[in-house]
Amino acid sequence: MAPLSAMSTTNSASRASVLVPLPLRGPYDYLISGPVERGCLVRAPFGKRELLAVQWGPASGEIAAEKLREAKVLEPNKYLSTALCDFIDWVAQYTLSPPGAVLAQALRISSAFDAEAPRQAFRVGTDIPQRRSAARERVLALMSDSLARTNSEIARDACVSTSVVKALAQAGALERVLLPEFVPFAEPNPVFEKVVLSRDQTAAGEHFRSAVKTHKFSAHLLDGVTGSGKTETYFEAVAEALSQNRQTLILLEIALTVQFLDRFAARFGCRPAEWHSDMTERGRRHTYRAVMSGEARVVVGARSALFLPFESLGLVIVDEEHDHAYKQEEGVIYNARDMAVVRARLENCPIILSSATPSLETYLNAKSDRYEWAKLPS
User: Fold this and answer.
1) Sequence-distant (≥ 6) Cβ neighbours of residue 131 within 8 angstroms
2) pTM over the 0.85 mark
3) 8 A C-beta contact, residue 80 and residue 110
4) Which of 50, 63, 111, 351 has the highest local Cβ count within 10 Å?
């Protein structure tokens, strides 16, 4: 596919191919009322519907301009990265799937691009009543720090009913303010809690840190017996990615256990962002937006997290890489472990495949020096 910069101004200023998230043969030509750039998100009319779609490349020119429908660029402009667009093309070609069906994996939360719905909250006002009940005293004591809280948060923390909060707001003791729709994700601290590592863990951890520092693709097998501390070892690579201000994706196809999330919090001071099918629509919308903006620094997710629109991906980890649950067996059929290697290569970042019983494919890749091999034998 020719780069968009190569398109002539007469033919490309208002024409481009647009890929819709449907299992169709490929992109369609549209008129574009805005910037014509690969990855730019648009609203495209398709039949009687309007779909969230993506500008994919130069127009084919097969249809006369007067017969084309117009796609409108999202306001404000939002983009899928070039690396993600290339990944979608690669997966489609490799799995013999329609590219639109693969794109649907990356746009599965279309509501993430809707306008935000601010939350109504309260902070301490100026008209404090002289005579106050014990319930009102608790509310005002809580709000004395001048922080804004929602009605339900105030009621919960002050142990009062929401009617008490509303009454104080009506009296002017609390004033209404608007907060962003979502509470920002906490930022993991790479030096929150240092763990004493064994000699083998230290050597492997330093090797992974060096790989992250290069900002280049490399593949690593972390081969360790059960109980050898593989998680603590690859956390060293996560810490380095955080220090480099880059994002990390940890694929974890076994159930996202509280134990793993608590181990992460003990090491980095907070839980990571999550992505899996048990989350609510609102929760996934929150994670999707935070990943796209770069706010979510570490994401732990199931195989579908592979298609999230990372703003600056600096490390990919596949935990228990031998797990058969990484295989998607309906719709677009793929093995998330193998596709994770491709995603890391296109993002130009290292990938760590961790297992106590490596898959045959990964073992042979390490044996033939395609992957670097770190061992934790005890």
Assistant:
1) none
2) yes
3) no
4) 351
